[in-house]
Amino acid sequence: MKHIVRLMVLFLLSNTLYKLIDNGTITYYINPKFLPMTKVALLFIVILFFLSVINLLFAVLKGDFHGSLYKAPIFVLFAFSTTLLFTPQAFSSSMVQQKGMLNLKSAPVETTNPSNLGVDNKAKTADGEISKYQQADKKTPQLTEKNKIELTNDNFVVKYAQIYRSPQNYAGKEIEMEGFIVHNPNIGNDKYLIIRYIMVCCAADAQVLGFIAKGSAPFPDGSWVKITGKFAVENNQPYLQILNAKLGKVPDNPYLLAPEGLPDS
Amino acid sequence: MEKGVPAPLAIVFLLTVPIVNPIVGAATKYAFFYRPDIVFIRLGGAYLLAVFIGFLTLLFWGNSRIINHSHSHHNDCCCGYHHHSNKQGARFSQAISHGQDEFFDILRYLVIGAFLAAFVQTFFPRDWLNMLGSHSESSVGVMMLMAFILSVCSGADAFVASTFADSFSTGAIVAFLVYGPMIDLKNLLMLRAAFTGRFVLYLFLIVTLLVFAYGVFINHIGVVG
Questions:
Q1: Could you tell me which of A15, A2, A1, A7 has the C-alpha nearest to residue A51?
Q2: pTM of the entire structure?
Q3: How far apart are CA A157 and CA A165, in angstroms?
Q4: Is the pLDDT of residue B177 over 80?
Q5: Alpha-carbon span B81 to A142, nearest angstrom
Q6: Bigger pLDDT: B100 or A126?
Q7: Which value does ipTM take for this structure?
Q8: Would the CB atoms of B131 and A114 count as touching at under 8 Å?
Q9: E strand or H helix at A263, and its extent?
């Protein structure tokens, strides 16, 4: 029986991987750059499955088949069976509290109220620290847009990093982006966040990127919106003053992907 | 080790490979671009700790058997699997069984580890850990606990660590970056599949103690970038 259970596991695993790759939802779990390796892994699992079927048939023919469940991977079978029950899903806004905000600018600084969303702590960053990082940022090419900066999936991380490293340089410019609306008690009730998830390798390392917006949110938490806002800095804390917000549809793959390197790296 | 590599050397290899490599170095530099020293403190510290642990293993374990018994059968090769026959067809069949056994041995621990890590990532409030971040010693312990339960791969953990950079000390961040790739929930279970329980316990304790000491040391010498 152990061999039958193993075959079922191999079947479920290959079937799940095939479906995820086929309908594209594999990108909810891994960075697409790992797709070729995943396909190779799937090929090996399928080969192992068919060889195991042949092996089992020979064992049955030779009368070497046992009905014992001893050492059968029941738990693994249960785990892979759950893939039949749940639809693949990307992270929703409900996971924001559990994920930290990717820190693209500030260094560890003294803070009296640590937040799980790093943006809040920038308010407590000493002026000396800010100027230090602005000095380090001289190597970074500055954005050339005069008035409006459009953050797309392709440029989001790099442009966001540039803005957060030298926020004073971008004060007054308009920023257009898409993302989730989320409230966070750590930043106060009069502010909310517009965020995106960023993935490096897989969903386990997904982190949050985004802006603080001032005022009351135009839509409830979890809404996917396209916004235009004026970027401003107050007490060293960058924020957006929302000018326009429209409800949008969550894209097929809502994750941003970490680029190979930031401009100065 | 079944092929004759001495245990202390294998342990140094086991502990350094996930950290001391160009990919992890580049990922750490990328995530902590404003703190290039973190790359050296992480990779250099991991290398020194692994070599030290290798010497300790030589001292305390010498030639003692540390491989799990189920992986230690021999016949005419060094693959660690018990072969029954030398006939060509039988060997092919055994190779498939062997492949399956290895695959399922590891898969069992991987699934349990992944389940526990996913559970903690989803339900364990991150705020609880952040509250402990300011203390020199407790912050190191907390980040090591975080590295242990999150079980993020070493190529991506620097990005996760960077989200704690505002709230935790440098020593705590470095402890996270050094400890996680060496010991975490997933690989501890997988280590148990390959090594004896006593050896896994020894490795867990020695790595935990030394990384903790390293993190506290970094805090006390005042590395602030």
A1: A7
A2: 0.70
A3: 12
A4: yes
A5: 60
A6: B100
A7: 0.71
A8: yes
A9: none
